[in-house]
Amino acid sequence: MLVLTRGSYALPGTSIDFKTGTWRTSRPLHQHWAAPCHSACPAGEDPQAYIGKVQENHSREAWESIVHINPIPSITGRICPHPCEQACNRGSFDQPLAIHSIERFLGDEARQRGWEYPIDLGRGAGATVAVIGAGPAGLSAAYHLRRRGYQVTLLDALPEAGGLMRSAIPINRLPRDVLDADIARILALGIEFRGRTRLGVDVHLDELRSDYRALFLAPGTAKAKAWSVDGAVPTDHRTALELLQEWVAVGSLPAPQSVIVHGGGNTAVDLCRAMRRAGVKEVHLVTASGLPGPDTEPDDIINIVPRELEQAIEEGITLHPHRTIQRLLFRGSRVVGVEMVTLRKLPTKSGQTGRIAFEGTETLLHADMVIPAIGESVDPTGLGTLLGGREYLWPGNPFGRLEHAPGLFVGGDARGDRGTVSAAVGDGRLAAAAIDGYIRQGDDPEVMSRAVITFDRINISYFEPAQRVEEPTLSVAERTDTAEIDRPLSSAAITHEANRCFSCGSCLACDNCWTFCPDNAVVKTVALAKDGSHYVFDYEYCKGCGICAAECPCGYIVMEAEL
Amino acid sequence: MLSALEGSQAVARAVGLCRPGVVAAYPITPQTHIVENISKLVADGQLQCELVSVESEFSAASVALGAAAAGTRAYTASSSQGILLMGEVLYNISGLRVPMVLTCANRALGAPLNIWNDQQDSMAVRDAGWIQLYCADNQEAVDTTIQAFRIAEHTEVPVMVCVDGFVLTHTLEPIDLPTQEQVDRFLPPYRFDRALDSRNPLSLGTCVDPLFFTESRHSQHKALLRSMQEIVAADSDYAGIIGRSCGGVLSVVGPAEAEIAILAMGSVCSTLQEGMQIFSQERVVKLIKLRAYRPFPFLALREVLQGVRELVVLERAVAPGSGGIVGMEVRSLATTMNSPPRIHNYAVGLGGRDVPIEIYPRLIEAVTCATEPVWFEIFDVEVERLPIEDR
Fold this sequence. Notes:
CATH topology of the largest domain in chain B: Rossmann fold
CATH topology of one domain in chain A: FAD/NAD(P)-binding domain
Structural class of chain A: alpha/beta
Largest interface: A-B, 10 and 16 residues
CATH superfamily of one domain in chain A: FAD/NAD(P)-binding domain
Number of strands of chain B: 15
Strand content of chain B: 15-25%
CATH superfamily of the largest domain in chain B: Thiamin diphosphate (ThDP)-binding fold, Pyr/PP domains
Radius of gyration of chain B: 21 Å
Number of helices of chain B: 13
Largest sheet of chain B: 7 strands, mixed
CATH architecture of the largest domain in chain B: 3-Layer(aba) Sandwich
Strand content of chain A: 15-25%
Helix content of chain B: 25-40%
CATH architecture of one domain in chain A: 3-Layer(bba) Sandwich
CATH class of the largest domain in chain B: Alpha Beta
Order of helices and strands of chain B: EHEHEHEHHEHEHEEHHEEHEEHEHEHE
Distance between the termini of chain A: 40 Å
Strand order of the largest sheet of chain A: 4-3-2-5-16
Largest sheet of chain A: 5 strands, parallel
Distance between the termini of chain B: 51 Å
Oligomer: heterodimer
Structural class of chain B: alpha/beta
CATH class of one domain in chain A: Alpha Beta
Number of domains of chain B: 2
Shape of chain A: globular
Shape of chain B: globular
């Protein structure tokens, strides 16, 4: 018979004998969320992942992680409107991370240090693919196809690759040595570039379709949309894109006393700034969208990088938000100004929102020139029946596959639902994956479908407020047409910025779960942790208290009900 | 040699003489001076001891428990709310049969908030399984503290030494501190059979299921009852070495044959004793100084109650809704007597209300005039200071 010890001491019991059993009601799980920056990136980059590598001073690995997705980070780091930063959870805490600065820094480092693209010319060996249009979509597709081992021919009507990045983006936003070097590095991977080759003139779709296993069409939008105000068009009518391209190529612009640019995109703002610098005294931008602020709904904000908008205002551009041109004013056949009216996005009778002009808000604005910047459509030359009378190619799937034309894929501005270099880069990558699937008769590649983590899941007790770094800029007086306005940041500033990252939804390896678990049910093991963390849960002992989930700074641990 | 010492200083020196290995405490009035003085002894190099500053009384008791379980002599002290915060740990210490000593500098419990003396705090933990010894003066506090370590270590039952706050702790008295050599003779080095040892591991605090819990409680109860002999033996051995005793579980002042008796605990005994000397002895009265409240000395008490006709039981605490606490236990004892005394149960001096020497003749007058035994009253309440509906 067992005799009780005084004080009920026991033989060394080991707590290993005390397993949780059946009474736990919820258990922790690692959930690798999509960081908001990742989800928002049109190119498909995962900034959280590469910023984590920058924090560890692994710049090259960070760059390799980017170019796995986007081959031109030094370009997108400069000119992308970076929706990643608008999405950044840190924006709900102090200020969003300057993700674009980190991206740009890594791209510049790679170029300056001569890091080679991590490429494994593997499985697609031999098969040939033609890419039409050497803008960002075409370059991205060519790069990703080449990485898969395809023989790629890249065609463009212009003598040099780059598309709009070369023809329309101001040099002071994207220095041409950066552009040239990055394009050269991509082409040097073994991509055959044939310039001065215009579709429908020098080559034809049918020939290409028979010569190549698949085609990627990225012709961009080269045809100006028809523009008039109640049928009236100025006699000196030029579109903003034409003028901008002419300025970039030749360096000349018309220089009236005053000008009104009508539109709300980067083309409009780039042209305004170029004209202002060319000596136009009054430059007005009339846009139906609103400026960022409490008065404007998020989907109604002008689609321009905020920093560029600030710089435009600094340079003396006059903005007319929530306004449109209702009438052109003429003296004889010459435009002398416009009648503007206020309009706002409001619910209409059909239940959708639409822009509604407010009667009685009309004002006159005098100007010597009115320039529309309202967009372009696909030039139908050489596309045969593909457009079917529409302005864009509208593939209707993320891979750009044209369902009625097997082996044809489309991406970039010509899709009709894009508008940035980053989106074009994303199109090229997805199309390359889909082309690979098509040629090898496999399935469509998977699209990132992880849930996006929200700010409330971040444990901000573990983060201290820290000032966002801003790239130094040339003062208004120092700005020219050629010198880059946004100057580079130091490596120390980039490390500081990277350290501000919340690591949303990804394990930081901070040891909090391991430290706080009252049951030693978090096991620290890089070897067994296969899900990107450094820990595994030992459910035999986990009581489901949830402390690990509460103390995870990154929201990487979630509790799952077990009842 | 006598020296004028504040009660807290005297207790601290007594603890120091016992060579504790670990002292852990959290400050609370009126206990604070005790631990302050111990920390000074440590800081001055007069005591080799690990003094652990903690963030709460719960931790203080837990640290002392751990230290004692690990085989070192441990001590803590507290008061009032601090004792309550220790409550869970106090039960653990006694249930685990870990010997240690705690000084309770008795203080009222809030609310209303009150820092002054009564014994509600130690009464609140009377069933925690600790031996409780009450001290009538600071000399007794010193002697009882030293004896407490030996009682605890011999019985493996923890001892709470109850010293009235302010009345004793903050009052200077001529104190005769024993010498280190004397204390060393009386109190051998601590040795605990079940001391935790990493080379021979044991688990303490394990879960005990219904199969054994009853036996565990039975054994604890018996240990408390048996400790009665050890309390008496320690007092007598102490007298042998140091020449002074505290009366074992209880002592009587006055003629044994007195038919009127007052039973009390703590410093009020000293007040009554002085009252007995000052006021003329029209009636023969004896004072029963109850030193051990836990274990409750049924047999010893029944013996001194033989022949008593009127017994006043004085309380320094109240069981609201019932009445006296000590009184209730004395009454239950009286039911076992052939001719029990009439028992008059009074509380006095709650929350530091002064207990003057005149309390003595007033009590005697009250019981001799009483036609019926007083079930329970707060003797010094001034009901006219309350609204009529609350009297």
